[in-house]
Design a protein that fits this description.
Elements lengths: L13 H6 L2 H5 L3 E12 L6 E12 L3 E5 L6 H9 L6 E6 L5 E3 L11 H11 L4 H14 L15 H17 L13 E5 L7 H18 L2 E6 L2 H7 L2 E5 L6 E6 L7 H23 L1
Length: 284
């Protein structure tokens, strides 16, 4: 089981935030740019202000975790990035042609095999049977599900279903890969607490697998969670949102090298403390 946790330190200045880490140091383009983004549901006295003044840039190939308490607007922000909803203020710019979504539930088609589920976005994009079958096999192999393509979802464990869901999301984001001239081969993967419903051991395994897949594909990932430990393990950058209306409170940079358990613990405690402050101030 992969256990490649990275050493964590808190950023000291803007240069460290934007240039010190691998993804931000080697990729010059932005996959996601948000400027002054707000989202309000409804009108008048009953209106709910979900997001306010969000400024956020995610570099091409970066792994960012959005962290916050329940109801702070994390999922709403993902919906804006996916184009499932429109902002009521500010601008949302997404560089990927086809951002894809992965949810807490696998949401697989129960009547389709694992391979056919992975092929589905490729089929909807108009790719031929042979090409999409090859790509589905590649992606199932990438998530370590060789030999299960013919099985249907009810024949798979919860963790295996989430791996199929991940392979399908990658197919949606990257098309046929480097050989598909119409695709954004780096892709943008939006993940809304995809491991929250799994048991602790399976969740730990899939977190390690996600890191491996991300490093192998260079896919840009925006990952929503309320679990500080999960955010610390996975992210290159952790972005803390305030309680409603959600806005960026603070960001933490995670360097690419090192394995300092003490610094990991310190950062975990720091983020947890700030999250508790956010929750307490909202409750008051």
């Amino acid at each position: 089981m992969p256990a490649d946790l990275t050493e964590l330190t808190e950023p000291t200045d803007l240069a460290e935030i934007t240039g010190a880490h691998g993804a931000r140091g080697t990729h010059g383009t932005a996959a996601v740019q948000l400027h002054g983004v707000g989202k309000t549901f409804g009108h008048g006295p009953a209106a709910v202000n979900a997001l306010k003044g969000i400024d956020l840039t995610v570099a091409d190939g970066e792994f960012v975790c959005l962290l916050g308490a329940s109801g702070c607007g994390k999922s709403t922000l993902l919906n804006l990035l996916a184009g499932l909803d429109d902002a009521t203020a500010g601008t949302v710019s997404v560089g990927a042609a086809r951002p894809s979504f992965m949810f807490q539930e696998a949401a697989l088609m129960p009547w389709l095999t694992a391979q056919r589920n992975v092929e589905l976005p490729l089929r909807l994009a108009g790719h031929g049977r042979a090409a999409r079958a090859r790509r589905a096999e590649e992606l199932l192999s990438l998530v370590r599900l060789e030999g299960v393509g013919a099985k249907r979802p009810h024949e798979l464990s919860g963790g295996m279903r989430q791996r199929v869901s991940l392979a399908r999301a990658l197919a949606a984001a990257t098309g046929l890969g480097a050989g598909d001239p119409g695709s954004d081969t780096t892709g943008l993967l939006l993940m809304d607490e995809p491991f929250a419903a799994l048991d602790a051991i399976t969740r730990d395994v899939l977190q390690g697998e996600l890191l491996r897949v991300w490093r192998a594909t260079g896919t840009t990932i925006v990952f929503v969670t309320h679990d500080v430990r999960e955010a610390v393990r996975l992210a290159e950058r952790v972005v803390l949102l305030s309680s409603r209306p959600g806005t960026v409170v603070r960001e933490w940079e995670i360097p690419a090298d090192g394995h300092g358990a003490e610094q990991q613990a310190q950062l975990h405690d720091d983020i947890t403390g700030r999250l508790r402050q956010v929750i307490t101030s909202h409750a008051a």
